[in-house]
User: Which sequence fits this backbone?
């Protein structure tokens, strides 16, 4: 499945329900190591692909319909249920004090701020924001300290009437006041906070954050005011669209487009929607991207070159009926009937080709006007191992599974079909092309099958003799039209009489086909080191909530979004589970249930470290410890393939960067 890739580089809480599935889980074991050349020119070029043009080269007017996975569950980016579609919509209509560039670095947004700087570090960190003097809400109210104060109080966790998804950063603020000068806001922190640039983005009007009912209910489907280049016109569940129109109260460079529409269209229908004009911009699958690209080449085709199934003409059906009747009767009329059917069938094929050719040419002509932008997405796919399951509670067993993976091959399997440089991801906290990225995967230790087997031996899991009559491999049923892989007959390791069997939970349904195929191969890979993986299928719609969040898995595959503020945003993903009354554990968003006090301490120190070099050192140290704990194993950064009209600028595969919606427009 895809998920929209254009959004600010921040993780919102509880966005796990939109966990992104990848097409491959495991590949045959190889003894290679992770590549280290992550900063070469190819990687830099793949960080972003956006059609650019000066505003003077673009014309005002027109509309763009942009394909997304679904309608936003809420327009309040701080609520549970908010996701990347929420971020994409509100990014066009609400203030972002800091945006994120292609390298994941926060940048002052001069549409809203003249400046923002730390004015004091002792005895308290103090930040002064100087607002753009013309900044105002579409209802005429100026953007002011009152908006900052209301948002801080709504999100700091002290008022039970507000139930934000999380309060990270806002809980470190001691006070927010107007001043010291005109158009200024002063924020004083109780504790040093390195990620202070993440705060107040998006900024909501005080009419939303100052009232619990508006914050919790009304902001789900509407906003009372906008302060961006666009404003909300209508959220239409019936048509599965969100329509934005140019905000005439906007003081910055006016939006070039009259209208921007986000339309929910399934991934497998987007190429057809581009052809028929239902969509203008959409993320698409690699196979569809190749067809779009081929349409622009001489003699290229956008379809498979074959006619549509359709209905056969009546004459052909009559001839087929006569042939069947002659065969049943056993008379000499069969030969004549067969010849008559052959002639009719050949004529119907020629007619179908004549009818299909114009449609194919029309589709090819339409797709010739599109460009496919290819970049690494701002998400990464991981193999998650549940540390609360009996076998995987042992770090040595988790390490064995992790060491068995050939992450180079996994990345190639995903990146090469997408036309991207194949690189595995070597960091949990930053992604390829991001400032400060460093591959820390060597903290996992030696990789390969031999290292994996040695780790299992050390943990006491001994190789047993194969049982030729037993099914020791994956549950490889051949439903959904897939070829069954059959049982994997291999010796399974055992300890204290218990076999080393793990549940590999994969999603059902069409979108999970590739994952299941990879899972079957992965079961064989694990069998090679003496681990039996039983594939369990979970309903695709509830795959995350019913399996991952509930801990009903041993091994699973899902993705996390990247972030410009990892010390803050990644902390819940790797926090050590803490016991709570009743015998349960508070896991936050750490669904592997693997964590350590040391990791928590390092991320806490990084969150409070204002020196950039020391901040980065602490993050890399924390990442190395996360690798060593072997609960989450990053595999690869997902591809982002976006089709857009060649005449449209300002759109593409943004990667980590924040879109600049007012500069999206058609070339003159």
Assistant:
């Amino acid at each position: 499945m895809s998920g929209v890739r254009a959004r600010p580089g921040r993780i919102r809480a509880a966005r796990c329900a939109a966990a992104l599935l990848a097409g491959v889980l495991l590949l045959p074991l190889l003894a290679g190591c992770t590549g280290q050349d992550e900063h070469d020119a190819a990687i830099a070029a793949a960080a972003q692909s956006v059609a650019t043009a000066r505003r003077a080269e673009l014309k005002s007017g027109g509309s763009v319909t942009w394909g997304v996975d679904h309608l936003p569950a809420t327009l309040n980016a701080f609520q549970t249920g908010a996701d990347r579609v929420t971020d994409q919509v509100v990014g066009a209509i609400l203030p972002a004090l800091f945006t994120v560039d292609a390298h994941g670095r926060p940048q002052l947004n001069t549409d809203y701020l003249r400046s923002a700087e730390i004015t004091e570090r002792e005895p308290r960190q103090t930040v002064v924001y100087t607002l753009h003097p013309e900044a105002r809400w579409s209802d005429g109210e100026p953007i002011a300290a009152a908006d900052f104060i209301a948002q801080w109080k709504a999100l700091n966790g002290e008022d039970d009437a507000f139930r934000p998804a999380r309060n990270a950063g806002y809980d470190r603020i001691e006070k927010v006041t107007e001043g010291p000068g005109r158009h200024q806001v002063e924020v004083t922190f109780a504790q040093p906070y390195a990620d202070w640039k993440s705060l107040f983005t998006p900024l909501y009007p005080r009419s939303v954050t100052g009232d619990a009912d508006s914050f919790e209910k009304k902001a789900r489907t509407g906003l009372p005011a906008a302060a961006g280049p666009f404003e909300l016109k209508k959220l239409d569940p019936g048509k599965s669209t969100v329509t934005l129109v140019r905000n005439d109260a906007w003081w910055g460079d006016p939006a070039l487009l009259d209208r921007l529409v986000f339309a929910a269209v399934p991934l497998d229908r987007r190429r057809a929607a581009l052809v028929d004009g239902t969509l203008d911009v959409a993320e698409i699958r690699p196979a569809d991207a190749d067809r779009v690209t081929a349409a622009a080449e001489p003699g290229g085709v956008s379809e498979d070159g074959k006619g549509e199934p359709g209905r056969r003409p009546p004459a052909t059906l009559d001839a087929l009926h006569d042939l069947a009747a002659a065969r049943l009767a056993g008379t000499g009329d069969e030969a004549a009937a067969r010849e008559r059917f052959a002639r009719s069938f050949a004529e119907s094929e020629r007619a179908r080709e004549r009818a299909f050719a114009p449609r194919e040419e029309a589709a090819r002509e339409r797709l010739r006007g599109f460009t496919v932008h290819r970049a690494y997405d701002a998400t990464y796919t991981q193999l998650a191992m549940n540390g609360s399951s009996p076998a995987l509670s042992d770090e040595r067993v988790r390490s064995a599974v992790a060491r068995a993976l050939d992450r180079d091959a996994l990345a190639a399997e995903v990146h090469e079909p997408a036309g991207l440089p194949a690189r595995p991801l070597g960091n949990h906290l930053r992604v390829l092309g991001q400032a400060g990225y460093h591959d820390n995967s060597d903290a996992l230790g030696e990789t390969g099958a031999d290292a994996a087997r040695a780790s299992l031996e050390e943990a006491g899991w001994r190789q047993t003799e194969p049982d030729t009559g037993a099914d020791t491999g994956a549950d490889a049923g051949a439903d959904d039209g897939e070829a069954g892989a059959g049982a994997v007959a291999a010796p399974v390791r055992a300890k204290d009489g218990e076999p080393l069997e793990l549940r590999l939970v994969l999603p059902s349904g069409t979108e999970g086909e590739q994952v299941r195929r990879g899972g079957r191969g992965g079961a064989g890979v694990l069998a090679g080191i003496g681990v039996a993986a039983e594939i369990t299928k979970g309903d695709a719609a509830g795959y995350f909530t019913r399996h991952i969040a509930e801990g009903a898995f041993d091994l699973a595959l899902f993705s996390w979004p990247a972030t410009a503020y990892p010390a803050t945003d990644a902390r819940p993903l790797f926090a050590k589970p803490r016991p709570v009354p009743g015998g349960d554990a508070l896991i936050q968003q750490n669904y592997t249930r693997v964590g350590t006090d040391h990791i928590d301490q390092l991320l806490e120190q990084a969150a409070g470290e204002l020196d950039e070099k020391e901040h980065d050192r602490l993050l890399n140290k924390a990442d190395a410890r996360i690798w060593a704990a072997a609960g989450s194993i990053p595999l690869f950064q997902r591809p982002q393939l976006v089709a857009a009209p060649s005449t449209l600028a300002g759109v593409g595969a943004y990667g980590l960067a924040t879109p600049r919606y007012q500069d999206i427009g058609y070339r003159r």
Summary: The CA atoms of residues 572 and 589 lie 5 Å apart. Residues 334-367 form the longest helix (34 residues).
